């Protein structure tokens, strides 16, 4: 096939390279310089700062093919995927950018040449239509006079609701920030109907497709009402690779281009579907691409943040797999072929296949049971829905009881054209929040209350004591100029040697002092770009603009540094033992222990943990020098330094290297050599959430003390067992066999005793209309044996009601059993409720068996008479005798 998606991408990049543009690689799907975005959703994201200040730019002209994901916020295409021919969650955005270089004229000329030149895309000029912002006369004239386009092919787009700049052709980054008019290029699939362009813009004509948007960044929005010109003007363009591919491959759907055509055909082989235009096939093919690139970015399925988006996409795929008859796990099976198709331009995906397969398989398995239950209930409710509408209570019930995602339930209702009463859904949700006292209350942690627009230089990597100037003092949330003896507060300095709580490492402690004044620092935290020293004045007073000495607790810091370096060793060792699927998800590093959270979908057995320990201790014994290096982010990536890529990094980063064993980006403090760690011991392993594991560990004397405690426990157990510690395991095994023998003997004796009791008590059976009623009181009888006696009696007699009361010290247990054929007339649970009513006891059960316990039984014989009378009344109301 000519014009494959890979060829189109290369042509675009090569064209602009010939026009003096630098080809830059796609940035990560996780934005590095914008905390407001979950995912990169446009080509311009990585250049956001350049539009406001082109002085920051390294290049004047840039061209990229940017990987994007749109699943939330302003750009949320998730619900449209599959139902339209153009929308995707994951897609590539082709873009050329100019930072205070060329502007409108050149941008339009370049676009027209690329699209229409026979050397490049060779699109029929008559099939292209243009929209411009109504007030942008300059752009209109360029199209008209320079490109020589017919006025019939250009349309001006005005503002919505008479609101200035509120237009489809006025692009804005957000509520504030760079913005400007744009011109859009459309392709007309049916040239014979070229006079319906205005109808298309009113969403009434599907013959047209928008293929390119050229934005002229010439303003900065200060507020909702104020826009000012930018000193430097820039160009930002965006053309969806999948869209232009559909045009150049002469198909009317993105899902018919080469990459999707192969994928959809492969997916259909697992289903009963022969129609390759099926909506579910489209959705699965789109979503599986998103999953591959998200997992590559070290995102694991979870219930929050980016992990929730991945989990939602996987579950939405699974819903549609069920719809087309795929009941067994299959996502992981299509991963190898998809990666093979796309690695021509995404070489970095090679080697990730196994990790992606494992995560998808585990997530699919975990959700399958939930899906089956939820779908079964939802389909029943949909079938009986009055007026094609179901209550939001049903949607909430599925979520609250079975964990069935509400958004997926709403998706299914939408597909089946069933309305949902969303008001009742939100009412149920709010009700639950109030009951669990969650609500939307926001608790400040102190950092959010104190807002200081200032900085503090951290000089604590090399200094333990430093002379500093007091810049601010806070007592609680109040800014003061003086803090005196006995008062607690937060002191902010111009520079400090105290490391603030950050990156999982706890803050330093120590003291601030000057002459006779002394302030004990109990914690250190970040407040924006500055550092707060939290503590109490022990003697004297401190005043703003005074100098003082800051001194950290060196022993405390040293213990933290040792645990931090040990955490780096743990991270690397885990990846060596468990594989590259391991990705850090969080950590807590204190002076006493370390905790490390990481993504891993499988169970970690003891032998693997011991292997991790052995590797770490081997590196400790080698006494490696721990090196600190400052370099560019690109250089760090070349060194394959590990990083938490959800974090925002500066252009210059700090790299912590332990020989060739561990290389990580890290701002924390570290010990000088691995030998200082002394000993490393894992003390606990647990699961934090689905797919997230946690390891807790000790180092140095704490690790040794842990081992000593274990030895002491073994010694104490050995003394109790009256054996040597070396052989206590054999002694325990002998005791287990002995206990098993004794339990078997007890069971034999108890069975004989039960048989004796049955023979003894059946003489008390009363016959009422063919129903046998047996009431008996026991004293301190084995509770489980009573249940076995009831089971035996129900087998021996077809129609029987059994009521056993067991007196046990100050407590009374009542157990009621009824044969199944009698439950149409009365139930065991009804009898128990009578007992509870007269004793204020607690209990419950089912129709055939129920039980209760009470300590408030004043007159047992009277209660039993009431129950017996009730049973007589119930049975006497039966018209015919119940036959045995």
Shape: globular
- Mean pLDDT equals 85
Biggest sheet statistics: 9 strands, mixed
Question: Can you identify the CATH superfamily of the largest domain?
Answer: Bira Bifunctional Protein, Domain 2
| Residue runs with pLDDT of under 50 for 5 or more positions | 436-448
Name of the CATH class of the largest domain: Alpha Beta
Name of the CATH architecture of the largest domain: 2-Layer Sandwich
- Measured as a percent range, the helix fraction is 25-40%
Give me the CATH fold name of the largest domain. BirA Bifunctional Protein, domain 2
Short description, anyone?
With 884 residues, this protein is α+β, with helices and mostly antiparallel strands. The protein folds into 6 domains: 5-256, BirA Bifunctional Protein, domain 2 (2-Layer Sandwich); 261-384, no CATH class; 391-441, no CATH class; 457-552, Elongation Factor Tu (Ef-tu), domain 3 (Beta Barrel); 557-707, Threonyl-trna Synthetase, Chain A, domain 2 (Threonyl-tRNA Synthetase, Chain A, domain 2); 760-876, Diaminopimelate Epimerase, Chain A, domain 1 (Roll), CATH 3.10.310. Strands 1, 2, 5, 6, 7, 8, 9, 10 and 11 form a 9-stranded mixed beta sheet that branches. It has a 6-stranded antiparallel beta barrel with strand order 15-18-22-21-20-24. A 6-stranded mixed beta sheet has the order 32-33-34-35-37-36, sandwiched between helices.
